[in-house]
Structures are given as structure tokens and as C-alpha cells.
Model the fold of this input.
Amino acid sequence: MSLYDSLDQYIRQSRPRFEEWLGRLVEVPTVSMDPARRQDVRRGAEVAVEYLRELKADATLIETGGHPMVVGGWVRDPAWPTVTVYNHLDVQPAMEPEWTREPFMFAVDGDRYYGRGTTDDKGPALTALLAAHFAVERAVPLNIQLLWELEEEMGSPHFAEGLGRAALLCKPDSVVVSDTIWLAGGRPAAPYGLRGNLAARLTLETAKREAHSGLTGGVARNPLTELAAVVAACVDAKSGRVTIPGFYRSVKPPGKADRAQFLRSGFQVAAFAAAHQLTKLRVRDRAAVMRRLWAEPTFEVHGFVGGYTGPGVKTSIPPRAEAKVSMRLVPDQDPATLFALFRKHVRKLNPDVRVEADGMLRPYLADLGGPYAEALQKALRFGFGKDPVFIREGGSIGAVVTMAERWKAPVMFLGLSLPEHGYHAPNECFDWGQASGGMKAFVKYFEEVSRIPVKRRMA
Ligand SMILES: [Zn+2]
Done:
């Protein structure tokens, strides 16, 4: 009897459990960046441990300096390959006025599941869990470890520390991350690269209190004007080209294979602009848009703080100002090196400006070829009836780089979210089509990966 004979039936029978478990998890508001939700985040981790134990998996809660993380699974035979499945169970805040339902009340509407965290990332986590359970029950010769973080939405500040403490985790041969978005429904997409990030704050103080421009103007230094000049010397506002000396030195431009994948991706500029409600773009050429989003670095200003922001114009000179900026980085740019270049540049422009880093993440690039990419392709075709397109992500997932570097293992992406699911947006949802297809895809992926030969480590 083939492994897949009973899979459709298993998936059908799993639906009530999937819905009940997702509902219970969504109703725990695991908003990691909100200090008032600390107990809720812990409760979310405890519920996850309960689910794992109900499926007879090993499960523990790992304490870190921040929120805990959950590690569990079925590690049965050291001779088998081991895969680690990464998801996160913390969620974004849900304060947007556009919510039409209670964000932390689970609602089912036909095949759709509503609530904060349904698609990012609780639904995909439970999809992977139920698929892993099936694979284990049907004796697929693979050790499956589940790793559920609860600080992803705040940039994974204690992830590396947590991995160091997770005695139950053994070094996997490969990792699969389920936390990414397709370009469109019906068209599976598998990212193979992520941009990195470097955030920084520029601050300048030129007086102890605000001064009247009629009394001091012409002599008093204006920190807002000076910070604006610094920023203008870091990036060309029209083209977006970064003008920090040495910024592009280690950029690896996309190769022929990358560009071919991009063109095959089905990416549409108009749909992209509509999805993000962008009314004006820097470029409209399709290839250029994809290259800029996935394979080129950026410099953005997120906020200028300081001065008068009330109605009308108050003619005072502010005493201090702050600019919040960040740079998305691409392979092989190193955030620490770039921060040094940036600071040097700013010092030269204006030695009174204080430059402080506010988070760094390295970019990531997986192998486009090789057995794991092939397994992923087969899995997505099996689950959704269509070959996936391989794309890159403009965003960053800190945990990915940490896992790749710590374990020297390939990290693949089997994401299940769709653009209409409202990732990080109001009225977030997930759906049974993605969950059931996702279970099929994960089971196939586990079986394929169990057959990839691995170098056995000496004990
Ligand atoms: Zn996520």
C-alpha cells in the first residue's frame, strides 16, 4: 500500500481537529512586541506543547531571556535524516481600524478562517504539524523536529540563545521554513533568497530647548535641516540609488538562472501596485521591479522626529531631531561592515550626528538547484497540482540566517500564505484549500527528504 493511499482520507478527517486547534490558538493573543501580552505569549506556547503531546510527540518549552520557544517532534532513529520545520506562533498587533471582526475571536466562514495569526503563522504551523504526524504514523524513515518561535515578529532577539538551550534539538540535515507568501493563489511560489536588514537612528542635538526663529534664526543650528541634509547625502531620492561610498561593493548581482526564475514567476506590476495601494512607482518595467524588490539593496527613511507638528506653522527652531532609517541588504552584503561604512560617511558629513544601529540581519540565499529544491518542487506540485515558481523575498527572516549558520544546513521555504490572506494586515485569514494542499505538500516533502542521502556524523 502506498503512503498516499490514505492521505486524502487523513486530511479530510483532520479538518475538525485543525479548525478546533487553530481556533484555540488564534484566541490566545500572542502579540510578542506588546509587553502587556507576556502571559498570553507564554500561554500560546503552552497550548502548542499540549498539541504536540496529544500527537505523541516529544515537546518542551525552552526558556530564553525573552519569550519562550517550543521544540518538539519525533526523533526516532539516528540513522535516518533529520528535518527541522520552523514556524512562529507569535503575531503582529491588531489595532487597525479596518478590522470588521474581533481580531482575536476565531471565525469560520465556509472554507475561510478569520483572526490575527491565522495565516501568519499559526495556520501553516498546524498544517505542517498534522502532515508530520501522518508521515510519522506511516513510518516515513525521517526524524521530524518542530521548532516554534514566539519572537519572530519582534526580530528574533533571543532565537540564537534559545537554540543553544534546546537540548532536545539535534543538528538537522535540512530545515524547512513555512512563513512566506505566494505571488498569487493557484500558483505555488517557493522563495530561495531573503534580503537582510540594517536599521539605524540618527540623532542630533543643537540646543537645550526650542528657540524662536525671529530671535535666534540665522545663528541657531537647525537639527531637522541638518539631518535632512545627511539623509539626502545617503540616497538619491529619485532613483533610490544609495550614495554611501562602498555600499554596493559586495553586492552579488542576480545571475542568469535567477533572472530566468524571476521572469517565470508570474509577477505582475499592476497587481503588485494594487495589492500595496501604491499610486506612484519609481520604475514600471517588470524585470526592473522584480530586480529592485528581490536582488537590490535599499536605503529608506521611516521617520523624522522633532519640531512642531500641530496645525499651522509655529516659527520655532527645534533643539533636537531624530531620523529613523534602514537599509535592506542583498547577498553578499554584511550588515556590520555596512554599518561601519554608513557611520563613517555620516561622521564626515556632520560629526555632531550620533549614529546608532537598531538591529541587523544578514541576507540569505539558498541553492536554486540540488536535491532539496527538487524535493520542494515535487512536493508543491503534488500538493497543489502545479509546479512552483522560485522567487526571492524582499523581506528578512532573522531566524533563517541563524539556523543556516548554526547548523550549516540548507534552509528551504514551503510557505502557504496568499496575498489576499492579509499578512500583517486587518481581517487576516487563512483557508482550508491552502491547509489541505499544504498537508499533502508537506507529506510529500517529508517522504522525498527521507530519501536524500546524508553524510552521517560521527558521534
Ligand atoms: Zn510570519
Observations:
- The longest helix spans residues 7-26.
- Residues 88, 120-121, 152, 179 surround zinc ion (CB under 6 Å).
- The CA atoms of residues 270 and 284 lie 9 Å apart.
- The chain has a mean pLDDT of 95.
